[in-house]
Amino acid sequence: MSAPTHTRSLPSVRRTRAATAASTRLHWWAPALPALAFGFLLLLLAGSGEAHAATGEVSGLVQVAEQLLRAVG
């Protein structure tokens, strides 16, 4: 046996105001992640001019990435 459901409709003014308020609010990581990715890619491009043949030594960028991974993980 199914029970009837009642839907409550909101006035259109309140619905549009609530929708715009929710869509304009950003979390802290929304602008931070693209900025971080941009900075990381910029570092990769800046260090590419100093590219050397594989000599066994680790670059500074790789050392920083390893330290970050150790700190996070």
What would your notes on this structure say?
This protein is mainly α and 73 residues long. Helix content is 62%, strand content 0%. The protein contains three helices and no strands. It has helices at 12-24, 29-47, 60-72. It is elongated.
Nearest-integer average pLDDT: 76
Q: What share of the residues lie within helices?
A: 55-70%
Radius of gyration (CA) equals 25 Å
By DSSP, the count of extended strands is 0
Brief descriptors of the model:
mainly alpha
Q: Can you give me a brief rundown of this structure?
A:
It is built from 3 helices and no strands. It is 62% helix and 0% strand. The longest helix has 19 residues, at 29-47.
Question: What secondary-structure arrangement, pairings included, does this model have?
Answer:
Layout: H1 12-24, H2 29-47, H3 60-72
